[in-house]
Each structure stands twice: as structure tokens, then as C-alpha cells.
Amino acid sequence: xxxVYKADPARGEVxxxxxxxxxxxxxxxxxxxxxxxxxxxxLCAWMPPEDIPGTFPNLEILFSVGAGVDQLPLDSLPPELxxxxxxxxxxxxxxxxxxxxxxxxxxxxxPLYRERQARGEWTTEPVRLxxxxxxxxxxxxxxxxxxxxxxRPFGFRLxxxxxxxxxxxxxxxxxxxxxxxxxVEILICLLPLTEETRGILNAxxxxxxxxxxxxxNVARGGHLVxxxxxxxxxxxxxxxxxxxxxxPEPPPPGHPFWTHPRIWLTPHIASMTQPExxxxxxxxxLERHARGEPLVGLVERGKGY
Length: 305
Description:
By secondary structure, the protein is α/β, with parallel strands linked by helices. Helices cover 31% and strands 17% of the residues. It has helices at residues 9-22, 52-55, 89-107, 110-119, 142-151, 177-180, 203-208, 226-235, 275-291, and strands at residues 2-6, 28-30, 40-45, 61-64, 83-84, 134-138, 157-161, 171-174, 186-189, 213-217, 238-243, 263-265. Helix 3 crosses helix 5 (142-151). The two termini are 34 Å apart.
């Protein structure tokens, strides 16, 4: 029985050290070294081998090193193979911090003032308090709820959209996206990327927001129709956007995202799995697996958002 890690090698060295200290009974291999493939029962990866069943015929669990699983070839995996997305406190805290920073920057018009600074303009906008601003989150999983929790102390009017009913203190939860959009001035996308959600950030959605709304996309680049965003920014329907993701990544040279004055672009760093807390999350799931208990973060195949 063995464990293989296939992701960032530097982080893998941290995992290797923790396994040596805490689970010396479970051989740990850092890809491309795997030991005897027939002995591998657990694989943690961002981009797994193309033929997982052929590479590791006795695999019992596939762990995603990140919170998302859309990069995994789910359709080609054996249906009985459990796939587990990463749920760990370091990743969650990082996302909450980034989104809080983005919302506050948009709320206080910092992209607008940065644009005016570049032109040498010293002009002001009326200052609004957080209690006078509404923020909506698309996707109310672990990350979405953490983001709402980080924003709550500032006093924003908080909204959330989720396909299944949720009750979250201090948050107006909507089951219909069309009901939420007209009420929010800053919209955060935290949805998983599925066939249903691809291209969801489009002209139709932007048109349902109040004029001058702002967008934060920390999910996947595939959620966004880029031409629609650029058109709505230029028309004034949208005032600004903070984008941590793109498709492809990075955007090609000369892409408008690099230079557009009302787009803040970061290189997919909103949240990163922290090796120390990620290892703890995996250890806990390995113990649950050994006891025959449900795994935390288990992906329900074919389930949407």
C-alpha cells in the first residue's frame, strides 16, 4: 500500500516530510517516482496521469490537490473510484482574504482612482459605507460561505445564490439567480465549472445587474465570456472587474485583460492549498477511509452546482 503525490514538487517535499513523520507505515512517492504501481492505493494530483486505471490498477482514492475537480478526467475514471476535492482551512482562509480585499477595493472605487492617478487627475467620488452596498456570491459551498463570513463584519448587505436551499445567518439566499442579480452591486463567482455554468458570466447576466456593478471571478476562466465583459465595461454597465482566472492561463500577449484600466488581473493566486493543512486534511480522510466512514469532500459524479 502506497501514496503518490503528483503536483508542485516543492510542496510535495513538505508532504513527504509530514508523511515520514506521521505515517511512516504508508510509503510516500513524489511523481514521477511511484514505486510498484500495483501497490499505489492513494493518488493526490492536480493533473493526474492520462490513464489512471492503467497506471495505478488498485487505486482506492483520487484526491484533488485543489478545491476544484474540473481539471480531472472524471468521465474516464472508473465509476467506483472515489474522487475527493481538497477542503482544508488554509485554502479556505486564503479565498476569504482575497475576496474580502477585492470587494473592499471595488467598494471604495480603487480601480477608478488608480485609473485617474495614471491620468494625473485629482477628483473624488461620494463615499458610501458598506452598509449601503450589496454583495452577492454565486455558489454557497465551503468557500462561498467562508467569503460571506469574511464580509459580514463590514456590514455589507449580503446575498447568495445556490441551486439547493441553504440557510446562512445574515445572508439572503436565493434559489433563482434572476431574483438575486438586480439586488447586488458587487458579484462574486465561486461556482464549480460544469457544462451548466460554463459561460454563465455573460451579457445576459451582466444586463440583470444594476448599472455600474462590479465583478469578481475567482472560480474558473471558463465561466466568463470575455467579449461580453469587455463590452459591458466599455458601455458603463459594469464599472470594474477583478479577475484571478482566465482561459487560457495566462492570457496571450496583447490580450485586453493585460492593459484594460478597469480590470485588475492576478495570476490564479486567490487561494492556494497550504501543504501543512492539506496534509492534515488528507490524513483525516485516510483515517475515515480505514474506518469505512464517509469522506469529507467526496465528489458526487454528475452533480451540477
